[in-house]
Write a structure and sequence with these properties.
membrane, about 475 residues, 2 domains, transmembrane, 21 helices, Lipopolysaccharide biosynthesis protein, transmembrane helix
């Protein structure tokens, strides 16, 4: 038990390192690429994202989760899954290859035909390392995964930048993507000693697929609705405008992902441990909501207030249309990690059926939002996206609140102090530094002043969450 606990602790730490460094690599090298490329390049990739994402989900077919869930996995299970995944990857790639012209015709973008044919190769490349990754997850070996992802991420980014410097345009993004995934697969084979045997079992395949098929269905549903905005924008508007939207989405995902990762690592294990004690559950949820609000509000408000100089300095003037989209989408960032807390509670309660129903409701709302807003421009589409996030918050909070007396209104009340402090401090900082003409000084001065001001106000107002963050950092350092 002690060894398992040590492995779990190490897993959480290395998983956090993996996600943090991967995001940092994507952000830093993404800025360099964005300065070298044009919005149209990103828009073209955005158009085919849904097809590649769905293809990869079909190839994986939920088998990874099935293998992880199965306790007595053996060489027969692994080899059967490996060969099945590889065969499916070839079939899926052939479908992509022969439908690439239809995809290009759908968007009226001839270049997409070649892009789909080349980018689609990733389906085969990624399938080669599915089992290696799965085995590492079962061993709770997140250190190896972190090393692989970081090395491949840096390598792929450098290759992409090299191609961009030599004027390859959108193909720079393609080669970055393919080279990163190729290096990932190679490194997983090098750092994992598992090799397939020439054996195959239909019985094993059926057992795994019974579980995996349910995962596949939910994964396909999630992937489709996560990327539906890209399809609609790509079809109705220019690739340039889709490029602006994808860049705004990338910026707003950073705080949402970072905060959600921290909260999920802390919240879910605690909820599972005390799920039968409503008083303790409410206390944990309340603490989680407050901690999330303490972290997410200053990040989101900073994105909203400093979006213009941030985009101008980091991405240059050609990306300025991204500003208004980023400011709108940043509002939705606030609700994303809070929704994660409520869904964590529902799942910890064992109500996966309720979670699925809520996801379906959320997807229906997404379709309605798109149907209402798509005619009125990108800004309105972004507002529709944020509206769905807000409604989703109250929906999730309502149902989680039925188990414990902690409704959406009460959650908002707990979040209010952090929102007010963030707004006052950030706007005040922006107003003070606005007197300086230099945009770099304005941005850096505003960010530093906002951060110091928020920490000082938190200390003066005795926000307990400030001490919680200090304790988390101390614990990580000691480990």
């Amino acid at each position: 038990m002690s060894n398992l606990k040590t492995k779990a602790t190490s897993g959480v730490i290395w998983s956090s390192i993996d996600k943090s460094f991967t995001m940092l690599i994507q952000f830093v090298f993404g800025i360099i690429l964005a300065r070298l490329l044009v919005p149209e390049d990103y828009g073209l990739i955005g158009m085919i994202t849904i097809f590649i994402t769905l293809s990869q989900a079909i190839v994986e077919s939920g088998f990874s989760r099935a293998l992880i869930q199965k306790k007595d996995t053996d060489q027969l299970d692994y080899s059967t899954t490996f060969f099945f995944n590889f065969l499916i990857s070839i079939l899926v790639y052939l479908v992509l290859y022969f439908t690439s012209s239809l995809i290009a015709d759908f968007y009226v973008e001839p270049l997409l035909e070649d892009l789909v044919k080349i980018v689609g190769l990733n389906v085969i490349i990624s399938s080669a390392a599915i089992i290696q990754r799965t085995i590492l997850i079962k061993k709770i070996d997140f250190k190896t995964q972190a090393i692989v992802n970081i090395v491949a991420g840096i390598g792929g980014a450098l290759i992409g930048i090299g191609f961009a410097i030599y004027g390859f345009g959108v193909w720079s993004l393609v080669f970055q993507y393919l080279s990163r995934n190729f290096m990932t697969s190679i490194l997983f084979w090098v750092m994992n000693d598992w090799r397939p045997s020439l054996i195959f079992s239909l019985s094993s395949l059926k057992k795994l697929f019974n579980f995996g098929s349910k995962i596949l269905a939910s994964t396909l549903l999630y992937a489709a609705f996560q990327n539906i905005y890209l399809v609609v924008i790509g079809k109705i508007y220019k690739s340039e405008e889709l490029g602006y939207y994808t860049r705004a989405t990338l910026f707003k995902q950073i705080p949402a992902t970072l905060v959600t990762t921290v909260i999920q690592n802390v919240t879910f294990p605690l909820l599972v441990a005390v799920i039968e004690d409503d008083i303790q559950v409410r206390a944990i949820m309340q603490r989680s909501v407050k901690l999330t609000a303490f972290l997410i509000f200053p990040m989101a408000i900073t994105l909203i207030v400093f979006a213009h100089p941030l985009i101008l300095i980091l991405l240059t003037e050609k990306w300025l249309p991204t500003v208004i989209l980023l400011q709108i989408l940043a509002v939705g960032v606030i609700f994303f990690p809070i929704n994660s807390i409520n869904t964590n509670f529902i799942n910890a309660k064992g109500r996966s059926d309720l979670f699925l129903k809520l996801e379906i409701i959320n997807n229906i709302l997404t379709i309605l939002a798109i149907a209402i807003t798509y005619r009125f421009g990108m800004t309105t589409i972004a507002i529709g996206y944020v509206s769905v996030s807000c409604i989703g918050f109250f929906t999730y909070a309502y149902y989680s609140g039925k188990f414990v007396t902690y409704s959406g209104v009460k959650q908002l009340r707990d979040m209010l102090p952090y929102a007010l402090v963030s707004i006052i401090v950030t706007i005040s900082s922006a107003f003070i530094w606005k007197l300086v003409d230099d945009q770099i000084i304005y941005l850096s001065g505003g960010l530093i002043t906002s951060a110091i001001g928020y920490i000082l106000c938190s200390h003066i107002l005795k926000f307990k969450e400030l001490e919680d963050i200090k304790n988390i950092i101390r614990t990580k350092i000691k480990k």
